[in-house]
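Review form for a predicted model. The reviewer records the input and the model, then writes brief findings.
Reviewer: anonymous (R2)
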Amino acid sequence: MDVLSTDAEAVAELVAKNLDCEQLWRKLKHLTPQERNVLVLRYGLRGKKRRTQKEIAKNMGISRSYVSRIEKRAIDRLSEQFLAEA
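Model under review:
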């Protein structure tokens, strides 16, 4: 008979990670679709492959420097969201 065991620390870590992901997605809803898309692609969120700014720029038909500005603005806005909650 196979027995499925769980490590309590591993389960706790997985739950914490899922809660962090849910909190992040709630905050991402406050960004524009463009900002959200850049962050999803840049950091490989929701199972997406991580992309470089150059790859994102080519995909979106914009310059790499514009992707950089969008990314910075989105991160700044996310930071404000998390600080407001603290």
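Findings: The helical segments are 8-28, 33-43, 53-60, 64-85.
Further findings: Residues 64-85 form the longest helix (22 residues).
Recommendation: see findings above.
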